[in-house]
Amino acid sequence: MTKVHAKSAAIELRKAGHSYKYIAPRVGVSKGTLAVWLADVPYTPNLETIERVGKARAASGEAKSKLKRESFQLARREARVDIGNLSRRDLFMLGLGLYIGEGAKSTSQTCFVNSNPAIINLIIMWFTKAVGLKNENLRIRLHIYPDCSEEESLQFWSETTTIPRSQFLKTIVDWRKDKKAFKSGKLPHGTAHLSVNSLGEKRFGVFLARKILAWSDEVLGTKNAGVV
User: In Å, how far are 67, 118, 203, 223 from 188, measured between CA atoms?
Assistant: First the structure.
């Protein structure tokens, strides 16, 4: 079951009145993951749940679920106000922070790795809107595990990023035995390794990698200096 299908199934089971304990093993995720996925889903325990856990506990669970849902909703409303509209500089600094955490620390190559589609799309926005690259400069190589479908993974990432399949490099399948059990089912579409092709423009080649490192050094070296 893919992550998307698991989330959809979890939502339907929650709407049907089932507890996290009931849902978790059926969709293959932890209760913590369910807490995030189902934060906005109204919960009224069904008869089966009430009989299993008792009326008092079921009522308590419903009340706690409501409080948690309201807390998430309040946090999201406040976050929307806190963030507001992103300026170009906001995007520049946000993307640079992501690159410092997940980007290549190479003086000759620009590359960013992540399995979260939202993060990959944000770094693509950074590259194209803040750094000046074009979509044509971007390349993606997928790293997947044996239980992943290469075709489905390529289709997923191409649709998610709007980067055409012609700009995807040869997929790498990780066959290491020590990785199989640990990663099985956890990354249904693998990890996207986003890199830059200069297409003959020197400023997008080695120079860009060095400039990103210079930006990083400037930020990491400032501490509290210059903060306004």
Answer: 33, 15, 36, 39
Q: List, for residues 174-188, the tens digit of each pLDDT value.
A: 887 665 555 556 788
Task: Say what the pLDDT of residue 49 is.
Answer: 74
CA distance 44 to 79: 28
CA distance 189 to 171: 11
pLDDT digits (tens, 9 = 90+) for 5-64: 889 899 999 888 888 888 999 898 888 889 889 888 888 777 777 677 666 666 677 777
Query: Domains of the chain, with CATH numbers?
Result: 3-83 (no CATH), 88-222 (3.30.1330)
Output the six-digit token pair for 211.
């400039």
160 in Cβ contact with 178 (< 8 Å) = no
Please check whether residue 192 is in contact with residue 115, taking contact to mean a CB–CB distance below 8 angstroms.
Answer: yes
Pairing outcome for strands 111-114 and 191-196? antiparallel
Q: Going by C-beta distance under 8 Å and a sequence separation of 6 or more, which residues neighbour residue 217?
A: none
Question: Where in the chain does DSSP place strands (E)?
Answer: 111-114, 138-144, 172-173, 191-196
What pLDDT is stored for residue 72 in this prediction?
Answer: 85
